[in-house]
Amino acid sequence: MVIKMRNSSKILLGFMLVMMICCISAVSATDINGTDDAIITDDIAIDDVSEIVEDVEIDDAADGAVEANDNAIGLRGEPSDLPQINGVTYTAYFNNDGTLKNNIPATNLRFTGTFNQSGTGFNKFIINEQLTLNLTDARFNNMAFDISANNTILTGGIFNNDGSNGHNSVITVTNASNVEITYTNMNIEAPNADDFIAIDVYNAENAKLYYNTINYTCGYTNPTDFNYVIRAKNSKNIEINYNTIDATLPLKEVNWNLSGSIDADYVAGVAVENCTNAKFKYNTLDVIANNRSGGFPTLDAFIIALSPNAEIEHNTINEDDVVTEFTYKETKEGSTTTKTAKKVDGTWNMNYTEAA
User: Fewest CB within a 10 Å sphere: which of 95, 139, 141, 291?
Assistant: First the structure.
């Protein structure tokens, strides 16, 4: 089964479908092509421009909200009881290149204060052994965490990042099992002419991304650079639940040479590929197009590919394209006039003229 959605002012969906690739896009389409036992029951609002098609209505099986269980995931231990890492004491735990020192005195750490490269001398904390990192009272300016240790927990923290320090993500999880990333607050200004992913998970197992709030803006067209808020690839049993994402992103041309992979689409709110038993539940995604390049560009709020037994439920997804114009012909009293339509301040202007 393939479902394509374009340009419905409001489309509310709750559906259970078998899926190979599913994407919710502003200018292109939503494609769902069948393989193995995916469950989808979401509320989706898409505001779109290129052509008008009929609304799609499917009974919503996701009524009501589920109360979050804060005790199930998150902080481990009282923050006040943990050893404090600040602008001075970090040297007891980390080398000058951001790697962990041998035989550090504790593995349950609390970060406090503000961290940046001018203070630490490095721009990335490299976590290659099991730690619990409480960042609730810490702020990280253009700093990143690279996690490759099983059973690592990172919770809290304010991250302000514009990619200027040479890394392409804020938090990366690679080749690790049972990693938890929770309650972070990220403010991203993606760089020009470079990839940037806020949270990037690769070749992991049982990773959990819960209760993260991410504001992501890319002010550049970046036609062949990847701009994803969250990306997960080649990972089993990943759970992406209860996150809030507010993204302002450019529309980009699809690379049809990579069709079937998320890599074909250079831009997305959340992108998942080759992740068996993935869960994407109770998330809120607000995605707005702010720029465009190419003749028929696309923007995905959420895309998933080659991920059997995925569960996609109870999400709220809003997508809006305020940059694309379309022309139409208006006939009155035998005379035909070509006009331009564009969304201005949230309302369709059916006779739009660019201001001088």
Answer: 95
Q: How many C-beta atoms surround the C-beta of residue 67 within 10 A?
A: 5
Which parts of the chain sit beneath pLDDT 70?
A: 1-81, 325-333, 339-356
Strands 239-241 and 279-281: parallel
CA distances, 302 to each of 31, 147, 298 (Å): 11, 24, 12
Rounded to 5 degrees, what are φ and ψ at 107? Answer: -120, 5
Is residue 139 within 8 Å of 115, Cβ to Cβ?
yes
Inter-residue contact 197 to 60 (CB < 8 Å) = no
Instruction: Report the pLDDT value the prediction gives residue 343, as an integer from 0 to 100.
Output: 64
Tokens of 100: 């962990």
How many Cα atoms are found within 13 Å in the side-chain-facing hemisphere of 88?
0
Report whether 303 contacts 22 (CB < 8 A): yes
Q: Which DSSP state fits 203? A: S
pLDDT tens-digit profile of 21-75?
666 554 443 333 333 566 666 666 544 433 332 332 333 333 333 334 444 454 4
CA–CA gap between residue 233 and residue 273 (Å, rounded): 5
Q: How far apart are CA 224 and CA 194, in angstroms?
A: 9
Sole residue written with tokens 């200027």: 164
Residues constituting the chain: 356
> How far, in Å, CA of 212 to CA of 241, rounded?
9
Q: What pLDDT was estimated at residue 174? A: 98
Strand partners, 330: 337
pLDDT at 9: 30
Integer Cα distance of 258 and 279 in angstroms: 24
Question: Sign (positive/negative) of CA torsion 294, 168, 139, 76?
Answer: positive
User: How many angstroms separate the most distant Cα atoms in the chain?
Assistant: 85
